[in-house]
């Protein structure tokens, strides 16, 4: 019988010892690695130092004693490869993501077919008739793949039925086919969190309802102010003076119709995150970059092309450029506020 020798292979910082025959080959060592670490031979790469260097499948039938520099003080074998289960998990994750994206795209297409307006007016605002009952959000869509979608639906209903929101939408003849929630994970970067989006001047409005950790809901006052901002985008796409004037007007109208001032509370359940209101007032969040128009998009998030640009945005600004411009505007506003207080 052939004698055996121990060969140490390093993988992800851990050393693994294999007993192989002295007359064994690289193919035999690869088969032992597959059996012990569940890494298929075709996924293996062996970096043998100092020579012969990188070896990959199909491995040559060369005996180990003729290819391994066993006498060298620098001798080391490093395995590069991914276990079969990890590869299967990645494939399943990619397939699951595609299924969610397809489902959201299908829901949006259905909303477009069901709620197609009879005539557009005032630069893209969808007005169905002269009845006040038409000036509302005609469909509410929570994200079913996130926890507790029924709570999100309650939140969307509360916004739709808010007396101030209803009064302001009737006054400005706002008729929005779809009001949906935004997935925080798809609109959070290391630099900012986006609170809302208005698609195609009132076709769809998305709002960030949940906390970043999905363990609660944000301050209702913050979300309602964000909704006022997005409703103003039904008329004006850019953040110019006309836009801010309309936003302020809508906020005053909504505050005047608040349940504390003669309206009524739709639900006794409070959706409140104590730090939310303070964060928004301190400028840690951005409401949105601008009103988005055109292009294809997925409910709850914007796709990016290979250059890192957001699909559906006008122009060719990258996300980094948009965020930088938003930060610059916030700094200018803070300087003006400081100057007015001094």
Automatic annotation (TrEMBL):
<feature type="region of interest" description="Disordered">
    <location>
        <begin position="99"/>
        <end position="129"/>
    </location>
</feature>
<dbReference type="GO" id="GO:0070628">
    <property type="term" value="F:proteasome binding"/>
</dbReference>
<dbReference type="InterPro" id="IPR013536">
    <property type="entry name" value="WLM_dom"/>
</dbReference>
<feature type="domain" description="WLM">
    <location>
        <begin position="128"/>
        <end position="332"/>
    </location>
</feature>
<dbReference type="Pfam" id="PF08325">
    <property type="entry name" value="WLM"/>
</dbReference>
<dbReference type="InterPro" id="IPR029071">
    <property type="entry name" value="Ubiquitin-like_domsf"/>
</dbReference>
<protein>
    <recommendedName>
        <fullName>WLM domain-containing protein</fullName>
    </recommendedName>
</protein>
């Amino acid at each position: 019988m052939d004698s055996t020798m121990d060969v140490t292979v390093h993988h992800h910082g851990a050393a693994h010892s294999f007993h192989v025959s002295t007359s064994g080959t690289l193919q035999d060592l690869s088969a032992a690695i597959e059996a012990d670490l569940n890494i298929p031979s075709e996924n293996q790469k062996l970096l043998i130092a100092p020579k012969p260097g990188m070896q990959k499948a199909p491995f040559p039938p060369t005996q180990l004693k003729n290819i391994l520099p066993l006498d060298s003080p620098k001798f080391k074998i490093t395995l590069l490869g991914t276990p079969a289960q990890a590869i299967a998990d990645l494939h399943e994750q990619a397939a699951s993501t595609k299924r969610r994206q397809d489902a959201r795209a299908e829901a949006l297409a259905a909303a477009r077919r069901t709620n197609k307006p009879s005539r557009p007016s005032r630069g893209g605002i969808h007005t169905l008739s002269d009845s006040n009952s038409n000036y509302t959000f005609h469909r509410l869509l929570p994200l079913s793949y996130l926890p507790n979608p029924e709570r999100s639906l309650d939140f969307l209903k509360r916004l739709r039925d808010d007396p101030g929101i209803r009064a302001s939408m009737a006054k400005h003849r706002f008729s929005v086919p779809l009001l949906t929630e935004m997935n925080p994970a798809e609109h959070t970067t290391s630099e900012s969190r986006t609170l809302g989006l208005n698609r195609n001047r009132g076709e769809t409005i998305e709002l960030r309802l949940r906390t970043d950790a999905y363990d609660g809901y944000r301050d209702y006052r913050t979300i309602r102010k964000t909704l006022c901002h997005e409703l103003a985008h039904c008329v004006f796409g850019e953040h110019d003076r006309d836009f801010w004037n309309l936003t302020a007007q809508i906020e005053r109208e909504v505050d005047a119709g608040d349940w504390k001032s003669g309206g009524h509370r739709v639900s006794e359940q409070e959706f409140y995150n104590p730090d939310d209101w303070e964060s928004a007032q301190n400028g840690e969040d951005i409401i949105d970059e601008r009103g988005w128009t055109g292009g294809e998009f997925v409910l709850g998030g914007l796709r990016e092309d290979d250059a890192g640009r957001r699909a559906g945005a006008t122009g060719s600004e990258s996300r980094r450029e948009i965020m930088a411009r938003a930060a610059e505007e916030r700094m200018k506003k803070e300087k003006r506020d400081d100057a007015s207080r001094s």
